[in-house]
């Protein structure tokens, strides 16, 4: 009887965690403030009652430093401190404090909250969405809205149902191929790499060192980067991807830029004001744009490339830099880049120690790989901040234990 009551309480606790995560579907202020923010604010006092190690407090300190750096940059450059990219840092701090109290840094609890956040993301995009997802097009809804959330929910459901990692890796490959057909290459790459890592770690275990395993996965990624454009140009994944691939081929973009046009602009802006930044990317001067174009051409861009079309966005668009890592430096200054850099290290650490998460490994690896891509090549998007907090909690959880020792799942 006591065992049954304990199991019943665990189920109720999981449901409550999931429901709390799902409150993130209520939008209160762009991508930074949601219903989950309110819950985290109410839980914040509990953070002071918990024990913390240095590794636990470091991201909070970096979030504070980034917030102060943005305040100074906004003041110097005449930008409102309510600029969404500036609010992202205090929002991260609030989510970190609240979710730490909620999950007590337990892996299974964090995974459950993450699934709730993914549900909130789907609810937001299916009921409200953004301009890019309100076109009535399924590929647009998938690419700009729900692809990542669907992937998280599928992996969470399979893990909860105790589905074997090999089958989860096959599902990741299937999701990757589906995203190729829906013109979402970055998500396809994340799913295929995650599937390859899960498959390799499950099949080889400790028989081959992690370094060699990841080298093999890296080779797979490079082969994919070469073969995928050939297949796309042949129309094997649909007309939309074929057209986009042909358009990007014409620009001669280096592979390192991953199809993004903004890095030359970001690098030029950083070199111009490396310490305090610009407050907002819309403060960049014509001279900066001109020097960025010269740099882009030296990097391999065609001189006839329409830079103005890609770089000059409406003043209400906060995604001009299209990189959390470089964009934070451009707008907030050098202190603002420290948190994204730490998050990048956390993502890599989570992937490297993936076996430490036991049955949650496929979910955690996929989340961390998506985090790496987003930090390098994406702007802040809806519910991305609490997801990075979940990565932080996963990273801190595994740092408590020796590498290669599975994290205990209390479920």
Automatic annotation (TrEMBL):
The keyword Transmembrane applies. Keywords: Membrane, Transmembrane, Transmembrane helix. The chain crosses the membrane at residues 35-51, 58-80, 86-104, 111-130, 142-159, 171-199, 211-232, 332-352, 380-398. Signal peptide: none annotated. It comes from the Bacteria. This is Uncharacterized protein. It comes from Rhodococcus aetherivorans.
